[in-house]
Amino acid sequence: MQNSPLFFEEDEVRKLLRMEDLIPAMAEALRDLSAGAVLQPLRTVLPVSEHEGFLGVMPACGRALGAKLVTFYPQNKGIPTHHALILLFPENGEPLAVMDGRLITEMRTAAVSAVATKLLARADTKVLTILGSGVQARSHLEALRLVRHFSEVRVWSPRNAELFAQEFKVQAVASAEEAVRGADVIVVATSATTPVLRGGWVAPGVHINAVGATRPNWRELDDEVLRRATIYVESREAALKESGDMMAAGKEPVEIGEVIAGKQPARTSADEITLFKSVGVAAEDVAAADLVYKKKTERVSQ
User: Fold this and answer.
1) What is the C-alpha separation between 134 and 207, in angstroms, rounded?
2) What contacts 262, CB < 8 A, 6 or more positions away?
3) Which of 133, 55, 218 is nearest to 153 (CA)?
4) Most CB atoms closer than 10 Å: which of 37, 73, 128, 258?
């Protein structure tokens, strides 16, 4: 007799998933991905032109087998732009769990940036700049504070920067340029489709996490940023096919999983500019969902 899969609503995921646990889980998933231990095709994207949205299908098989269905509707107002479901399957292929994937997507993106920041940012960082004020800005603030200490946090956004600053007790600034100049770590987490970060603004030695513009015809970084930076990605194949920034860069990126495994160097000098360009990959979602499932079953068995 077939068992019914467990269903995890977002509130249940929130109770079970902690950023402190997720960051090392993402490091493990990325190391496995670069080592060839994860089977992961490129994301299939179906344009929903009538509503200016997209449906993505993202399967992966590594330490766990699963798939994410994700919608991205960038014009949404008052509700998130991303919604998702993640399915997990055990060794016999019988459905194991279905869980809301919106929060997992939000948290795993920031956790992966934290993995990159821990490896690539200078140890003496003091100033964090966040371009954006949505869910990714919130999750990145939480995650990056776990891997580096910041004495100053600045935020800039076309909308809601002041509200974000008040809620999280950080500094809102009037322009992206003002936010970026002198920063040690920069997060680009906007819905921009044209560059919002310019290379002439960034200081030597900065580390950048760029998590938006995940379509081939979208950009969030200008040519000067791409020219000056050493670029790291989750998956070369995915980044070079899905990211307009990577297509414009015209140079081979390093997979962050290879750095985790010690096969590629991290930062090589105090003045080097490092850029982690994230497009989000299924291996991360499946590993995060598997972590949620294991946390749940551990609690039940106690």
Assistant:
1) 21
2) none
3) 133
4) 128
Q: Evaluate whether 247 touches 216 at the Cβ level (below 8 Å).
A: yes
* Average of per-residue pLDDT across 55-80: 93
* 26's tokens: 């993402």
Mean pLDDT, range 162-179, rounded to an integer: 97
Q: Side by side, which strands form the sheet with 152-156? A: 171-172, 152-156, 127-131, 185-188, 207-210, 273-277, 229-233, 254-255
- Total residues found in the chain within this entry: 302
pLDDT band at 78 (very low <50, low <70, confident <90, very high): confident
Distance from C-alpha of 89 to C-alpha of 95, rounded to nearest angstrom: 5
pLDDT in tens, 266-294: 999 999 999 999 999 999 999 999 999 99
Give the 3-state secondary structure of residue 153: strand
Contact assessment for residue 252 and residue 224, using Cβ atoms and an 8 Å cutoff: no
Question: Is residue 199's pLDDT more than 50?
Answer: yes
- Beta bridge partners of residue 197, listed in sequence order: 221
CA–CA separation, 270 vs 258, rounded Å? Answer: 21
Question: Alpha-carbon dihedral of residues 202, 204, 209, 215, nearest 10 degrees?
Answer: 60
Q: What is the pTM of this model?
A: 0.95
Question: At which residue do the structure tokens 């902690």 appear?
Answer: 18
Continuous H helices in 195-281 = 223-228, 236-242, 244-249, 256-260
Q: With beta carbons less than 8 A apart as the criterion, state whether 248 and 298 touch.
A: no
